[in-house]
TrEMBL record:
The keyword Cell membrane applies. It is found in: Cell membrane. It is a multi-pass membrane protein. This is Nucleobase:cation symporter-2 family protein.
Amino acid sequence: MALRSTSSTDGGSTPDRPGRSDTGAAHPPAAASDRSAVHPVDELLPPARLIGSGLQHVAAMYAGVVAPPLIVGAGVGLSPGDLALLISASLFTAGLATLLQTLGLLRSLPWGRIGARLPFVNGVSFAGVAPMLAIAKEHGPAQALPVIFGAVIVAGTLCLLAAPYFCRLIRFFPPVVQGTVITLIGVSLLPVAVNWARGGESPGAPGYGSMRAIGLAALTLAAVVLGNRLLRGFWQQLSLLVGLAVGTALAFPLGLADFGPVKDAKVFALPAPFHFGAPVFDSAAIVSMAIVMVVSMTESTADMLALGRIVERPADEPTLAAGLRADGLATALSPLLNGFACSAFAQNIGLVALTKIRSRFVVATAGAILLLLGLFPVLGSLVSLVPQPVLGGAGIVLFGTVAASGIRTLGEAGLESGSHILLVSVSLGVGIIPIAAPTFYDAFPEAVRTLLHSGISAGCVCAVLLNLLFHHLGARSRAAQQSSPTP
């Protein structure tokens, strides 16, 4: 299905959009024409579809949410009980951040709207893992988490304040840049799916890369593809969830899944503010996390632009600013409940493209489910039964779909121009460097490595700079030369 703009002339979600009031809510359906004017993003689906589709989003992003607290918790030597609390806090704060993005709960604050009001999933940013481990190494296990939380609070506040300025970069994101970045998002995530398919552990771990693990990933991939081909209606849209269920069921007889996590999990646990101590504000740690936040803002901007094209509601400056404000506010508040920095989850963009379900209320339902998982660890343990190879098989479909959406956008942008070809080829090459050679930038300063080790950020910055070079610098003088009469 070709992408088309259903927005107003300014390209974004403006108050005068048909079917929407000045508060952003849908008009009462007085007639059939009014109902048809409601954008699919604002469509409220029946409860069964909301829950089923919301569960798909949770299943797609669960591993990404729990991985950072697992790694950081292990790095600071937390006990199993404290580690479980850290994971529950990450799930809970991811749910809050997702609800903030999808529903825009804080719309009348003096500094502007908060929340992109798109089907946009937020969770713990993986970009901050390496700097947080470095902070833990410098300050020791006893003070590590308070220092990390203090740095995250300041970084989130800076993001909140910088949002209205950062969003102005949208004019440097024409379709050729958007298509390049969207393609890079998918390509950058595919190695994650491949690692999951091999077992999700580090190379050398027992069973990593075994035939059982890869075979299970292949069977899950086949189940998703066949489900999408053979099922009809709403069940076809749930093909990913069906594939995950089939893969998990097959994992038990293969010895790749067990009910141990469910037996050991607590039934209910309230968030305990400042469980690990009051935040400590260390200047070096703050600088480190501020750099991470800039990287996260760049990726979130690219993700919102990608999602806007997929759901056919292009993200304009106000939408980007509102989304970045939600990132900043969620990040600043997250440490109060023992959580980390929050950012976009690109894998869920692939799920929106795959299922064609564009309702933001589906993702809001996923946010509510994440809240429940954070409050009821036993429910979270049920989701964690899905083994990594199963996620890997499904991830190949999800992340490949994102890359395909980027290729489609590039096709619409037109690659007849030599400057477009050069922009795409160089940006893709720069973005793929950290994927093909993860240690390529190891000799660079830490601040530079933080940016360049993210293929999405490196490729995005490269595409923006090349677009400036080809289409902005000297553009007025070239236009004047072309319009001046020949002597």
